[in-house]
Amino acid sequence: MSTTTPTTTGGTTAAGDRQVPRTPAAPRTRRRGENSLAGSLASHAILIVASLAALFPIAWLVFLSLGPDKDDYLHPGRIFGKMTFANYSHVLQETPFFDWLVSTLVVSLGTTVIGVLIAATTGYAVSRMRFPGYRKFMWVLLVTQMFPVAVLMVPMYEILSELRLVDSYLGLILVYCSTAVPYCAWLLKGYFDTIPFEIDEAGRVDGLTPFGTFARLILPLAKPGLAVAAFYSFITAFGEVAFASTFMLSDTKYTFAVGLQSFVSEHDAQRNLMAATAVLVAIPVSAFFYLVQKNLVTGLTAGGTKG
Amino acid sequence: MTVAIDRATGKRRGEPGGRPGPLSRLKQSYQRYWYAYAMIAPVVVVLGVLVLYPLARGLYLTLTNANSLNSARTIGANHIEATYEFIGFDNYADILWGPTSYDRFWSHFIWTIVWTALCVALHYVIGLGLALLLNQKLRGRTFYRLILVLPWAVPTFVTVFGWRFMLADGGVINAGLEALHLPAPLWLEDTFWQRFAAIMVNTWCGVPFMMVSLLGGLQSIDSTLYEAAEMDGASAWQRFRYVTLPGLRSVSSTVVLLGVIWTFNQFAVIFLLFGDTAPEAQILVTWAYYLGFGQQPRDFAQSAAYGILLLAILIVFTSFYRRWLNRDEQQLAI
Fold first, then answer.
1. How far is A296 from chain B (nearest CA, A)?
2. Transmembrane segments in this chain: where (chain A) (predicted)?
3. What is the dihedral sign for C-alpha B153, B155, B161, B164?
């Protein structure tokens, strides 16, 4: 019972409402009962097994991407003798990889920009103002988030084909906005909730309108939240499969999620190339992800943790 | 100060002249609401155009016999007008109690429920276990955490391909099982193992989110509560049961709801793992997609009807879930 640190977080965990200071979670040494040796060995053992389970499929994909033949995934032992980056250079030089990169970026960034821009004021409004219809509106936002792809897919396909937007970036961006916008609004509400209301009050006292308060005081403070919302809608659009594979017809306009599949269907299952493409796609996204993942969770669950 | 008042009066010029008392209060609230409605207007417009209109149209489609042969379409330069007809609730009746309704709807329905329940339970239990381990004072826990988040960091469509390599007959998993003299199931062909594999892959994909969320929840529990519990002689289990779990309650209820919604609608894992090859392992979402876009002729009406049914199921579930949470909260509060 070594009472190590009653001091570190003494006052900050406002157990009640509205935990104002978003406490950095890491530097907290809170277990007072030090683990027994057996206990910590067991913990390490479990964590190591879990880490291996988490790591292995990815590592395996990377490993297979180094084998030059398309059947190497069945005989991984052979890869050791002939590891090469040939798959990568092939993918980069002779497949529509860069076309896919362009369309993925256009679609994802388009969705992100529209989603965040439109959702920001809404997030602020639902965070600060209790207007009539507020609960219904929140409910609509939640329900839109749970739309199964199948609900909107058929009517959207009809509408887009009437507007001649099938197989166009704009069409796909519009479709993704239907999920990104409510999502961002929800996320941003959670973030705005963590900004103390006193700041708004100060702004009002100094003579700002609600819009002014929002634009001049809250938005600059909410930059991390905006970044999280942007990132989340980006990766959501980036990884979406169902709409992308239905609405994009010409293979230069595929996003990665669709393009990757085309290696199996059209090019006689060139699994080695697929693996290399997958790795090329995954590395930048994952690297980026690591930078923001901690904020992501706060953003996602903040709305709910308020209860 | 004066500026604020000027602007405020400017905003409510439509109101009749101010009288003291309830009317001025009304005006005050009207100002607040004016701002609120102006601020949510863009999202309302976008949702109206991009969600509600297609939804209304989808609802209408479910009452017709639309398919890819009688819908409006353009072949070359010729534009063919839609010729589908209004048939009322026949689609729903056919899906829910038509002659082959069990094979088409109810079997998928049951499997979807099982899939959702198992996946979310596994996500939650494994995620909580790992979060508890990572919340201890442990050497290298940051390192473990970074690795354990990996499945979440890599896009799903990439990892599912990785899994397909591993699950293929002759892939590394079966090679490993054979080396251990265990039977090597046909993961991608046999119905039971298809389902097993789908749950396994989805669990692998979903645990990190739960783990990180619950870890955040654990770290926000006031440590003095544990000290007090320890002083009172609570065992480790009692501390977990009466301090940790209630402390995690709000985080848990959120992530479980999100988890259910996401898993229920999980399209990518099943679609990319099996494509059209595994009719028995399709959950309702992928099955609806198959009806609308994976077969010829494409049955738009039935696909849309499935979509509406799915949405109805989720809305019912969420309403009950929230009511249950609220009731629970009142019991706790009193």
1. 9
2. 37-63, 100-125, 137-157, 169-188, 226-249, 269-292
3. positive
